[in-house]
Amino acid sequence: MLLTFVIAYLALSIVIGVAAAVKVHSARDYITTGRRLPIYVVFAAVFATWFGAETVLGIPATFLREGLSGLASDPFGAALCLVLVGIFFARPLYRLNLLTIGDYYRLRYNRAIELACSIAIALSYLGWVSAQVTALGLVFNVLSADAIPAWAGMAIGAAVVLVYTLFGGMWSVAVTTFVQMIVIVLGLAWIAWLVSDLAGGVAAVVTHAAERGRFRFLPAPEPAALLAFVAAWITLGFGSIPQQDVFQRVNASRDESTAAWGSILGGGAYFLFAAVPLFLAYAASLVDPGMVAGWIDRDAQRILPSLIMNHLPLYAQVVFYGALLSVVMSTASATLLAPSVTIAENVLRGFIGEMTDRAFLWMTRAVVACFTLLVTLYAVTSTAPIHAMVENAYKVTLVTAFVPLACGLYWKRATTQGAALALACGLVTWLALESGNPDGLWPPQLAGFLAALAGMVAGSLLPQRYGAAPGVSAGGSAAGGGREAADTRR
Length: 490
Hints:
Number of domains: 1
Number of helices: 23
């Protein structure tokens, strides 16, 4: 019966997503919804996209082992990212009326910087999307009592998300995530209320966690611990800012105020509600300590599903898995669309040249299908935990794309040469340390980020070998005009 419900819910998601596809009449509709989303839909899209498999299954497992000190990247860094986007990036980027975040790098610098940053951004999604696909495989495997292998569950789940994302694009993502956010919030809140009764109440769970130091957040006052803490925080806090999924929600808003506040409110809601899965997972250690001890070192991501299956009635299991599927699919659909759009617009289109709008729309859909196949294969072959998949995804954008974006908007002297040197210094430093000394005093991504900053400053202040960058101010103006400058290729 539970598996039947899951299948029905997946079918309903397809129907809702495909129905939204009737609003797609152009590539801009497919990618940005024609910039028509109201704040409640933008807020829901931001929240539901970021409230993914890692939030329900990944970070609770980390919390059980390490406490809050292991969660600097997510939810703390992730929430920081969304708030920073709303305060500093949403308005100036919205005014430019671009199609993708990759377009900014071409407008502010040149085609080479656009290509390098766009490839880095697209590659960063492999880990995040794969984490969602992995969670879908876990759901089918658990619900079928191992009758459906994890790899088959991944393939089924990815196929479902692909169907409605392929046809409706951002319209389907926006409509389905709005419905899914309601299921997530109501479903998990009710499950938390049921589990708290089993654990002796909220106060008992919180007290037990506090007595065992699980709320200790700050690291030990030692250089290595402090640097690791800062690196974890900025990996998502800064590294996830230059991302197409974040930009799409900003750019799909009906005005710049909606773009800014949708991101800020979505980030705040994400941070607050991320406490619910943490509570559920820790309550499991009081309700069934033997089960937790059995899974903690083998596969801690199964603790919460096992708690629900073993200790709650069928109707509660239906609610939980409905919420979990909403969590995973809302993130998976958004993170399938974002890199596919970036590849189509900022990588392939630059080589192909002039295209009709219809041809570009179908090319984008083809990339969505190919990227889905790629991330499914990556998920099937990867052995990394869900939380680690997501955390590692943003290292590449932290050391490559963030500095050119932030300095391009807020430092008028930033040049194309500076951006090129920032990319080279950040990437080379990060890769060298990742391969040569990943566990050294300096975390590789932090060293790469600092090297990128140094490269930007040095490259911009030294004599220039390239023509001066056109410049895009924080107010959103650009040489040649906002939309016209962005659309030089179209």
